Hints:
It is a single chain. The protein has 559 residues and is mostly helical. It contains 26 helices and 5 strands. Strands 2-3-1-4-5 form a 5-stranded parallel β-sheet, with helices on both faces. Helix 20 (380-397) links the parallel strand 2 and strand 3. Helix 4 runs antiparallel to helix 5 (81-93), helix 12 packs antiparallel against helix 13 (219-226) and helix 22 packs across helix 23 (456-476).
Amino acid sequence: MSTSTAVAFVRQAEHYIAVGNPNEAVRSLIGAVRSCEVALKTQPNDFGTITLLGSCLVRLGRLPEATACFRRAISLNPSVASVHQNLGLALLHQSNFDAAMGAFQQAIVLDPANATHSYANLGLIHLRRSEPAQAAILFRQAYECEPVTPMGVFNLARACFYDGNLNEAETALREATRLEPAFADAHRLLAQILQQQGRFEHAEASLWRLIELDPNGGQAYRAIATGRKMTENDRPLIQQMRAVLQTGKTTPADECALHYALGKSLDDLGEYEAALSEYDRANALAAKTLLAGRPFDRKKLESAYDHAVKIFTKDFFVRHRHLGSESDMPIFIVGMMRSGTTLTEQIVSCHPGVGAGGELSFWARGGLVGLDPSKAAIDQDRLREIQNEYLTLLREIAPDKAHVTDKRNSNRFFLGQIHVAFPRAKIIHCRRNPVDNALSIYMTPNASPVEFAHVRETIVFAYQEYERLMLHYQEVLPAGTILEVQYEALVADRETQTRRIIDFLGLEWNDACVRHQENTRTVSTPSLWQARQPIYKTSAERWKKNQPWLGAFNDLLTE
Length: 559
């Protein structure tokens, strides 16, 4: 065997990928790896063979080995930009973001004229860190490297998308697909934009085009199933999804998406046991693909909540009240994921005095050490910086509004720091029947990893810890700071509960708040279709339909 044999195997793998046969592609890549390893026994420092081996290992998901190959190649010749780019990719796939950024930045320094992919991958890192504004800047730099190619125009579309300019993003995507009609990623993003704008029928047309381009891809099927209610007329589509699974040609990510799509479809059709079986398969695959098999760290979550309960006491808030901002601009909407925060924000942001901030990453980004007095006194200079930075962010989002929402549910971790900084800010705590909430978490796919979300027992544990934390804040924060909104009450009596929310916020009543489905703002959430519908009661007491198969979720029946 030789390097030329390895190259032949790689070409064979690319052929199998093109015809939609990933299993044969894997076999070919394994052959390429073996050929490279044999060749390196006689020429251990051959730069080309080492880099080819690294590329094959990346495709096989053997990322630590690939990283070692690229580092070895760089030690032999540090001036080749493409090797730094490949190293960055291997590190990115391992979520080693800092090291990946260094590799991509070095690739740009070495070859700035061909830096499109490095800039784009830097943008992806910022997305993984929940920093869309920074990602948009880098996607635009990627576009400027290739302003007339389909990939360049696609990067422009991504820049516009993460800047919030969806109309411009749509225009760029239609240009990208005109230049390259088979550009699957462009069709995928176009469908996502159309769904976020509530244009579900137009989105479905793009999704069917995506299926034409990639018949074995599961993402498009999942988007169709989650973009509307499935009916008996969709039985042929369900059979089509099952047929795709039986081909054995799907990747683990596509297989996962197909099981989510089948689960949603069968649940819509009332086949609850079969639906839960599909969700079991989907979650098992999601744990492998999104979490790389990493176990959920119960002690880490428990210790985080223990810390908050210990530090942020009623006496603590009384002693530090004088440090807080006088601004009441922020409205925080928190809760366990899938508890109704999106619906609540849709209702509140219909009020003419309220802007919708969506899921802001400000508090989750860190930099709050100065507000945690566990080791030292509160850093008042840092506190003022945080107050100014956050208010500036809210004004940029909605410059003409008196209030702006922040509905990132993980802000519950930071309610102590938030109340220190903004004691006049109102907090809406969305609650839902615990078992319904757990089922919704289990049945909803996530784009980003959620460590507890794919095993029933860990969902139960995370929910119980969340309840403990929120009970603590209900007890220690001043009266009138937190309003609990029960999802079931909201769907049962929309107007009464909406008036209760608006009154809590100190706002004058506006009839638009009971017509949330007419809200034209962009919705970016797994529940984006439901968020556009009139309030409906079918999701309440969903657990009763699934009671015989709840398993570990039964532990939440007493909550």
